[in-house]
Design brief:
CATH architecture of the largest domain: 3-Layer(aba) Sandwich
Shape: elongated
Strand content: 15-25%
Low-confidence stretches: none
Mean pLDDT: 91
Oligomer: single chain
Order of helices and strands: EHHEHEEEHEEEEEEHEHEHEH
Number of domains: 2
CATH class of the largest domain: Alpha Beta
Structural class: alpha/beta
Number of strands: 14
Largest sheet: 8 strands, mixed
Number of helices: 8
Distance between the termini: 21 Å
Radius of gyration: 18 Å
Helix content: 25-40%
Length: about 250
Amino acid sequence: MNIKAIAVDLDNTMLRSDETISDYSLAAMERIRATGVLLFVATGRSRMQADEFIRQLHPDGVAAFCGAFVEVGNRVLADGRISCENAIDLANALTERYGKVVGVEVDDVWHVNNPAYRDRAPVVGDFTGLPTGAIGRLSVMSDDYRVFAGFDFACYGAKMIYGTDAHIHCIYPANADKYHGVQMLCEHFGISPGDVAAFGDDYNDVNMLQQCGIGIAMGNAADVAKTAADEICGSNDSDGVVRWLLAKLELKF
């Protein structure tokens, strides 16, 4: 396979467990990209929450919010969001039906219905006065995601994407899919998804791992990601992404 682009997840993939990128990985990625290989970041984070790492990696393209938001440089190719009205209705419906802790992220600020919600600097309150803004996702806290199996997220223009965090589950715009974001980036740069090596570790990476030219799961990945992948590399704490690429591309570093 002639690798023309890399699509890499951030958390527990490119990022170590302490949420940093090692100096080795940053330098090695520069060496890899010097061969002409494109770099795409595909993350469940918002664009703002990923900004620190985007500044470090200088990718050619970004697919944030699990692919609902796609950007090349300063050009936004896609910006799928959940409408404010749907977000309020959805948050209230989840609260009333399940009595769960729910959070709505508006312009990168979380609004929650219970102070028990654990996230970055949450704003506590109900959803009646939710400010108008760009809503990329909601979160709901539950020890068992299966309780939501019969809930119709689609009628709110949304979908739940499960993760290995046993307590917090994210709800994204209905069109959110990392592979869809990668497809848009490939189209922009005139390459095929079949030329992409994708790296990931969790449920939201599965379709990307299956559909790209080659899917590589991290050594620390969830079983569902390992099953979906073609190969397994080292862990996120051992520079697994760049070490696999250096070996595959036969680069000395």
